[in-house]
Structure formats: C-alpha cells, structure tokens
Amino acid sequence: QKEVEQNSGPLSVPEGAIASLNCTYSDRGSQSFFWYRQYSGKSPELIMFIYSNGDKEDGRFTAQLNKASQYVSLLIRDSQPSDSATYLCAVNALLAGSYQLTFGKGTKLSVIP
Amino acid sequence: EAGVTQFPSHSVIEKGQTVTLRCDPISGHDNLYWYRRVMGKEIKFLLHFVKESKQDESGMPNNRFLAERTGGTYSTLKVQPAELEDSGVYFCASSQDTSSEQYFGPGTRLTVT
C-alpha cells in the first residue's frame, strides 16, 4: 500500500510569516513530487513540482525534497490571506505500468491577517 | 489555452440510476486520468488513458464503472447502477507525458440518494 502522509492541520500562521508544510511518502520508487493548492469547493491547482533532491524555488514558494528521508516540504514565504487553502502533497510512482498520483489528505493552512 | 473541463458540475441521482460524466482534457494532452474523492478521504486514482487506450484501470472500484475515450479526445465515465457509496467528487486530469505534471479539471460532484 503506497501512502502519503500529511499533517491535517489546521496550520495557522500570521500574515507575512513563513508557512511550512510537510509530507512523507512510503514508496522509495517514487520519482516526482507535486504540491497542489485546493480552495474549498474547487479543484486542485498545481503550484509546484520537484523531481530531484534539494530545493526548488518559484516566487514565494520553495519545494524541498529529500529522497533518502522520503520527505518533501513546501515553504511559503510572506504568507498572504489568499494563501489560505488546503495543500495537497502528491507523489508520482510507476505502478501497474502506469504513473499514478498518490495523494495525501492535505494540510489546511490559515493565514491570519 | 483552455484547461481541463468537466460536465456536469453537479449530479444528483437515485440509487440504481445511471450517470455519465464527461471530461475534455487540455488540447494535445494524450494522457487522461480519472480520480475520485469521497467525503473525508484523500483523492484516489481510478484509471489512466493514453490516447484511446486504457493504460491502467487498477483503481476502478468495480464493474459498475465504465470509462471510455473513443477517438482519444474526451472521455466519459459511466456509473451503472449507482450506489450510495459512489457519492463523491470525480476529478479528471490530463498531462502531456505519462510522468509529467497533471492538471485537474473542476470536478463533478456526484450525490447518490
């Protein structure tokens, strides 16, 4: 059973602070890692993806991957109230001849003005 | 460029009835995926098309679910007959390559009463 674990939260941070979201995964064969943002009642929106160990930065977002520890994280700098949403960690692994995304349950982030 | 579209956005049917969901992927994306999220659970993979071929349908819950992608463009997911436990949000996603990032549609919220 391939699993992706996230702290469900809610994680509350003040506006302007750094929000840190964490995710662990069980399948060592996982090859690519994604962070989706989901507003209530909306579809998941891709915000970051990372394939190699280390950090990847895009604007206020930084994804960090450590394959040895089977750990991936998302940092949001200068958090804004509009960042309040559920953040889904998803892991892509080759299963049954196909790349399937396995999702965590998501971490709810609340940015307090 | 248009994103992934899904129809209908909501569907309420009675147990035993049939429902057909439709997904139009991003133009040029050969890979099309169906996922489902039931209340309180994480998003789960259902199946994956590459063009018109089913690459992987290991996530389909049972034979009441039938997915098609004739012509390799849009896809339909039919549930017949629907059961109460089929209620949830059905997402479609598409990607250019099998291992690359997947973009999600707005989802169809299915309620079986």
Give keywords.
heterodimer; A: about 110 residues; mainly beta; five-stranded antiparallel sheet; about 0% helix; B: about 110 residues; seven-stranded mixed sheet; four-stranded antiparallel sheet; 11 strands; globular
The number of helical segments of chain A is 0
**Helices and strands of chain B, in N-to-C order?**
EEEEEEEEEEE
Form type of chain A: globular
- DSSP helical segment count of chain B: 0
Overall SS class of chain B: mainly beta
Oligomer: heterodimer
**Radius of gyration of chain A, Cα only, in angstroms?**
14 Å
The count of DSSP E runs of length 2 or more, i.e. the number of strands of chain A, is 11
Beta percentage of chain B is over 45%
**Helical fraction of chain B:** under 10%
Distance between the termini of chain A: 40 Å
- Note the gap between the termini of chain B: 37 Å
For the largest beta-sheet of chain B, the strand count, sense and barrel status come to: 7 strands, mixed
Strand segment count of chain B: 11
The stretches of 5 or more residues of chain A where confidence is low (pLDDT under 50) are: none
Mean pLDDT over all positions of chain B: 94
Described by strand count, sense and barrel closure, the largest sheet of chain A is:
6 strands, mixed
Averaging pLDDT over every residue of chain A, what do you get? 93
Would you kindly provide a written description of the structure presented here, covering whatever features stand out?
The complex is a heterodimer of chains A (113) and B (113). Chain A has strands at 4-6, 11-14, 19-25, 32-38, 45-50, 54-58, 61-66, 71-76, 85-95, 98-103, 107-112. Chain A is mainly β and 113 residues long. In chain A, strands 2, 4, 5, 9, 10 and 11 form a 6-stranded mixed beta sheet that branches. Chain A has a 5-stranded antiparallel beta sheet with strand order 1-3-8-7-6, with no helix packed on it. In chain A, 35% of the residues are buried. Helices cover 0% and strands 49% of the residues of chain B. Chain B contains no helices and 11 strands. In chain B, strands 2, 4, 5, 6, 9, 10 and 11 form a 7-stranded mixed beta sheet that branches. In chain B, strands 1-3-8-7 form a 4-stranded antiparallel beta sheet, with no helix packed on it. In chain B, a hairpin with a 7-residue loop joins strand 9 and strand 10. Classes of the chains: A mainly beta (113), B mainly beta (113). Chains A and B meet through strand 4, strand 5, strand 9 and strand 10 of A and strand 5 and strand 10 of B.
